[in-house]
Design goal:
The structure holds two protein chains of two kinds.
Chain A: E1 3-7, E2 10-14, E3 19-26, E4 30-38, E5 43-49, E6 56-58, E7 61-66, E8 71-76, E9 85-93, E10 100-102, E11 106-111
Parallel strand pairs in A: 2-11
Antiparallel strand pairs in A: 1-3, 3-8, 4-5, 4-9, 6-7, 7-8, 9-10, 9-11
Chain B: E1 4-7, E2 10-13, E3 19-25, E4 31-37, E5 43-51, E6 54-57, E7 64-66, E8 76-78, E9 87-94, E10 106-107, E11 111-115
Parallel strand pairs in B: 2-11
Antiparallel strand pairs in B: 1-3, 3-8, 4-5, 4-9, 5-6, 7-8, 9-10, 9-11
The chains are: A mainly beta, B mainly beta.
């Protein structure tokens, strides 16, 4: 059975801290891994990763994929209170449209 | 742009009642999806559609029905609501299949449903 596991489940940090969120997966026919940020409402897209070792970066957020060890990390540097959200990892597998498996998410809380 | 619009935002149902969650998108997307998100859990796919007139089951389709008569609309029907259907429901769409050529999912703002 395809599985996506995120850790930690929740995390509380102070503004300015750096955090690392983890996503490991066990799926057949891996195509890509996606990160989403979910605040109060709908998830919003952050990154899509398809190749090992290539870092994707957007401002203070960056992410990298390791296809050999089957995991990805999402780094956030110099955290701000606006980074407080649930961060979802999802894995896309080949074949059909029923193919995006989500992890349970990591709830990040950044306190001033 | 309106994007993906879901209604209602909140609803409380009694056990056994039925209702339809509405979803419409104005981006001319072919693919549409319904997900549910339970507390502390990831999103689970209920049903999806790859175009008007075509629908298929996802991971957790029991207790739900869908239709896709137009490209824009993808309503989700709950028949005989049960407490286990208490969840947040998200509609989503994409032009191509998910993650094809960096395609992204566009989500609606969600419907909080409670069945009591």
């Amino acid at each position: 059975e395809d599985k996506v596991v995120q850790s930690p489940l929740s995390l509380v940090v102070h503004e300015g801290d750096t955090v690392t969120l983890n996503c490991s997966y066990e799926v057949t026919n891996f195509r890509s891994l996606l990160w989403y940020k979910q605040e109060k409402k709908a998830p919003t897209f952050l990154f899509m990763l398809t190749s090992s070792g290539i870092e994707k970066k957007s401002g203070r957020l960056s992410s990298i994929l390791d296809k050999k060890e089957l995991f990805s990390i999402l780094n956030i540097t110099a955290t701000q209170t606006g980074d407080s959200a649930i961060y979802l990892c999802a894995v896309d597998v080949r074949g059909g449209a029923n193919n995006l498996f989500f992890g349970t998410g990591t709830r990040l809380t950044v306190i001033p | 742009n309106a994007g993906v619009t879901q209604t209602p935002k909140f609803r409380i149902l009694k056990i056994g009642q039925s209702m339809t969650l509405q979803c419409t998108q104005d981006m001319n997307h072919n693919y549409m999806y319904w997900y549910r998100q339970d507390p502390g859990m990831g999103l689970k796919l209920i049903y999806y559609s790859v175009g008007a007139g075509i629908t298929d089951k996802g991971e957790v389709p029991n207790g739900y029905n869908v239709s896709r008569s137009t490209t824009e609309d993808f309503p989700l029907r709950l028949e005989l609501a049960a407490p286990s259907q208490t969840s947040v429901y998200f509609c989503a769409s994409s032009y191509q299949r998910i993650a094809a050529t960096n395609e992204k999912l566009f989500f609606g703002s969600g419907t909080q449903l409670s069945v009591l």
